[in-house]
Design a protein that fits this description.
356 residues, paralog of FGE (formylglycine-generating enzyme), four-stranded antiparallel β-sheet, three-stranded mixed β-sheet, globular, binds calcium ion
């Protein structure tokens, strides 16, 4: 070996070592999200994922609309129109503080624990239990609770030491900062959620896909559909109550929409087992939801603010808690079959699932 060649061999060895190290790393842009930071809420045993503070793009860019309409037509919806997406505009930046978010939707088992612990009387009595049994493939304990009103959901959150997510928190937790259309990516993937598949009797169901469930699925059944922060079923399974009043964009937490005592429709997000792809998009927000209604496919999940101790805010001395009611409040029970295929064009926004 000559003196000239020796440095070349050394350089080659260095390059081999660097190449080997690079080979052990995922290629740029392919690497998945970091493993979620998990914490358990001792009150109900729920796992929570950490959603760090950030600024994200909320809503949908007008420039995206033609592509969305085109995709809808490709998916077989020949009547797709741009106004389906109007309530998602304008797209705007929103800053969100860090928070803990339930990894899963609240389950029947957890809601039962809450009802028993607090002697809580849900606004629609035991309908949640009876209908849960009907719409959860046998009343499985680990299916999401349904037929709970907005106040029922708020009361549960307070018992669990938390609150409902704001609409902004919910969307940020589902899509992070890249304005993706679904928790997993930008394109529809039927493997990511429980939606209206071939088991559904709906006209808008996708007869080419079998996701395993006609109604709800056990929470967390679709790990492939995890959000960038590790939350599951943000799309599909059941829609989820948010704290926010339904108002036009841009979102502002200071304009009264986060007033929990105000009257008006509340936001529900994420779509359900009864929905097709475009109402499963994480930016979708067309319908209003009457807070005293109970829906067959609407449940919720909980947010715990950063640094907040896990202490119930319900008055345990009174047994029934702040939001309990001995009589059902006015408002409808919305049975399956009450849904329309798609939003209808009205002067005012439609109330989703009008009482029959
Ligand atoms: Ca399904
Ligand atoms: Ca959901």
């Amino acid at each position: 070996m000559t003196a000239l060649k020796r440095p070349l061999w050394a350089a080659a060895l260095v390059l081999l070592a660097v190449g080997s190290a690079l080979a052990q790393r995922a290629p740029e842009g392919v690497q998945g999200p970091s493993p979620p930071i998990i914490r358990t809420n001792p009150t109900d045993g729920a796992e929570m994922v950490w959603v760090p503070a950030g600024e994200f793009l909320m809503g949908t860019d007008k420039a995206e609309i033609p592509r969305l309409v085109e995709f809808a037509k490709k998916m077989g919806d020949a009547d797709a129109k741009a106004w389906f997406y109007e309530e998602e505009m304008p797209q705007h930046k929103v800053k969100v503080d860090g928070f803990w978010l339930y990894k899963h939707e609240v389950t029947n088992e957890q809601f039962e624990k809450f009802v028993k612990a607090m002697g809580y009387k849900p606004e629609k009595g035991d309908l949640w239990r009876r209908y849960s049994e009907k719409y959860t493939e046998g009343g499985k304990a680990n299916h999401p609770v349904v037929y709970v009103t907005w106040k029922d959901a708020v009361a549960y959150c307070q018992w669990a030491g938390g609150r409902l997510p704001t609409e902004a928190e919910w969307e940020y937790a589902a899509r992070r900062t890249d304005a993706r259309q679904f928790p997993w990516e930008n394109d529809w993937d039927p493997r990511g959620c429980n939606f209206a598949d071939k088991r559904s009797k709906r006209a808008w169901s996708d007869k080419t896909v079998d996701d395993g469930y006609e109604y709800t699925a056990p929470v967390g059944s679709y790990p492939q559909g995890a959000s960038p922060f590790g939350a599951l079923d943000m799309t599909g399974n059941v829609c989820e109550w948010c704290s926010s009043l339904y108002k036009h964009y841009p979102y502002s937490g200071d304009d009264g929409r986060e007033d929990s005592s105000a009257d008006g429709a509340r936001v529900v997000r994420g779509g359900s087992w009864d929905d097709c792809w475009y109402t499963l998009r994480v930016a979708f927000r067309y319908y209003q939801f009457v807070p005293s209604y109970a829906f067959y496919d609407v449940g919720f999940r909980v947010v715990v603010s950063a640094g907040r101790p896990f202490r119930s805010r319900l008055d345990t001395k009174n047994g029934t808690g702040t939001f309990s009611s001995s009589r059902p409040s006015p408002g409808a029970i919305v049975p399956i079959g009450a849904r329309s295929v798609r939003p209808s064009r009205n002067d005012s926004l439609p109330i989703r699932a009008q009482a029959p």
